Automatic annotation (TrEMBL):
Keywords: Membrane, Transmembrane, Transmembrane helix. The chain crosses the membrane at residues 21-40. It holds the Pfam family LytR_C. This is LytR family transcriptional regulator. Residues 459-482 have a biased composition (Low complexity). Residues 459-514 are annotated as: Disordered. Residues 103-275 form the Cell envelope-related transcriptional attenuator domain. Residues 369-452 form the LytR/CpsA/Psr regulator C-terminal domain. It comes from Mycolicibacterium canariasense. InterPro entries: LytR/CpsA/Psr_C, LytR/CpsA/Psr_CW_biosynth, LytR_CpsA_psr. Belongs to the LytR/CpsA/Psr (LCP) family.
Length: 514
């Protein structure tokens, strides 16, 4: 069996970043801010944004339930692949532009129901998930889907003679986004309607746009890793100091728990400062926030004025904020990972997103004709075809000789068979799905690429599958009254999937934290 580790990009030892609430701050602050303004009366809604087509456009009913994936990308490069300025990297205490790769250290799935109730699930970045999208892989940490796929895609294109750096960067990022969307969709079992992505510099830019941030510390701190060096008590921080304030983990009594509380306190300070200064109604400040959004945020192509207005209308709503359950912590290939129960996760997410409707199962096996073809000289297709047939799929003998042999396992589908292709993708380990222009309506074709490793669950019997996930899981839930969707507030509680517990941030106007 191929050694998946040899495909992995080297990841130098570095300080881990947990900035979920930082991502929420930047994305929701700037997007909700402009949601409250008639920005689109004089400008196109997506004018100036980097727009991704990694998520297929789908029709949505105005006011109906929607699901948005927020992606926080731990990259020291801008949206075009250029190195961040050295002065910014110095302020970030983030090493050089090669450090950190393209991990998605923050993934938050946000659901807004028809009544505008907001439920958000944080997806722990080290969740060990099934991943068969790339040759030689069976499982990865979910945060790695973006970077690994980006690297593979660029390498494959370069081998085909593509040498334009910008073209490689754009293709790699789009593939990385698609892989991340697929990995999340395969994990939670619900469709994703929209997504927004932000890089590490976005937080710095937001902090820089403010005239100092008011915080309070219970104790003086000095930490050379993050650059945090502050006295006890109330104080005003500049952008660089604010970064150190929310990133410090070493030397704190409760480690990441204290850092989480700091991030909550920072968000409270940011939102209140923006509100108190009238930034949400000040066209000059809105211009500044929009400049940040245009530079640091990528939106899927489906965002429109109705969605922006809707976000603005629910900016004061209560948010049910949850974390996906983790069974235990373990080590795989020398890396710390979270062992999870995918079936339990799917059940929990579907119930939370059901909008009060009964949760339905997958239903009957579709009757669409399915062909399984080898792209290369291996016999994997027969194994996959046999397994699908045993599960009730209508597998037909292939009637095609492939001219273009894809390097990746790919599912193509004719008109009306997109849902069937997605269901097969889940069974095959989140492989790529694409419209098949040469296929008749309703037909699906699976092309097995070289190096594809068949998931154990595909060939397992139904009884083996149902008995493999009997361990109980726990998760945490927090309901917070927030100033904008997807925010924590000063009376929110920590709900990271760790055994640690501690007091939440206090309700003071400038809450004091460790």
């Amino acid at each position: 069996m191929p050694d998946a580790a040899r495909h992995r990009m080297p990841e130098p030892p570095r300080r881990r970043l947990r900035w979920a609430r930082v991502v929420l701050a930047v994305i929701s602050t700037v997007l909700v801010a402009v949601s409250g303004a008639a920005w689109w009366t004089t400008r196109g809604v997506l004018t100036g944004f980097t727009v991704s087509h990694a998520l297929a456009d789908t029709a949505h009913t105005n006011g109906g339930p929607i699901t948005i994936l927020l992606i926080g990308l731990d990259s020291r490069k801008d949206q075009h692949g250029n190195d961040l300025p050295q002065e910014v990297l110095d302020q970030l205490h983030a090493g050089d532009s090669e450090t950190g790769g393209y991990n998605t250290n923050t993934l938050i799935l946000v659901h807004i129901d028809a009544g505008n109730k907001v439920t958000a699930f944080s997806i722990p970045r080290d969740d060990y998930v099934e991943f068969h999208r790339l040759p030689g892989y069976t499982n990865i940490k979910i945060k790695e889907a973006y970077g690994l796929t980006k690297f593979y895609t660029e390498q494959h294109l370069a081998e085909q003679g593509v040498d334009d750096r910008e073209q490689l960067e754009m293709a790699g990022r789009e593939a990385g986004r698609a892989a991340t969307l697929g990995a999340v969709r395969n994990l939670v079992g619900v469709p994703i309607d929209y997504f927004a992505e932000i890089n590490l510099a976005g937080f710095y830019d937001l902090a820089s746009s403010l005239d100092g941030i008011q915080v309070c510390l219970n104790h003086a701190v000095h930490d050379e890793y993050s650059g945090a060096d502050f006295p006890a008590g109330h104080q005003t921080l500049n952008a660089a100091q604010a970064l150190a304030f929310v990133r410090q983990r070493h030397g704190l009594e409760n480690g990441d728990l204290d850092r989480t509380h700091r991030q909550q306190a920072f968000l409270v300070a940011v939102m209140r400062q923006l509100q108190d200064s009238g930034a949400f109604t000040d066209i000059g400040k809105l211009n500044e926030l929009m400049a940040i959004a245009h530079k640091d945020i990528v939106l899927s192509s489906g965002w429109d004025s109705d969605l922006f207005r809707r976000l603005g209308a629910i900016s004061g709503s209560d948010v049910v904020y949850k974390t996906l359950p983790v069974l235990r912590y373990d080590t795989r290939n020398g890396q710390d990972v979270n062992i999870i129960d995918p079936d339990a996760i799917k059940t929990q997410v579907r119930e939370a997103f059901s909008d009060g409707n009964p949760v339905t199962t997958t239903g009957d096996v579709p009757t669409n004709p399915v062909q399984v073809v080898n792209a290369d000289s291996n016999w994997t297709a027969s194994t996959v075809a046999s397994a699908l047939q045993k599960r009730g799929f209508q597998v037909e003998k292939p009637d095609v000789q492939l001219e273009d042999k894809p390097s990746l396992t790919t599912i193509s589908y004719g008109a009306g068979a997109g849902d069937v292709a997605q269901r097969l993708s889940g069974l095959l380990g989140d492989v790529v799905t694409v419209p098949g222009t040469d296929l008749p309506a309703g037909q699906v074709r699976v092309v097995i690429g070289n190096g594809y490793l068949v998931p154990a669950k595909l060939t397992a019997s139904e009884s083996e599958t149902s008995s493999s996930s009997t361990t109980s899981t726990t998760s945490t839930t927090t309901t917070t009254a927030s100033h904008s969707p997807w925010f924590g507030t000063e009376d929110g509680t920590d709900n990271d999937p760790t055994p640690d517990h501690g007091l939440p941030v206090s309700g003071d106007r400038t809450p004091c934290v460790n």
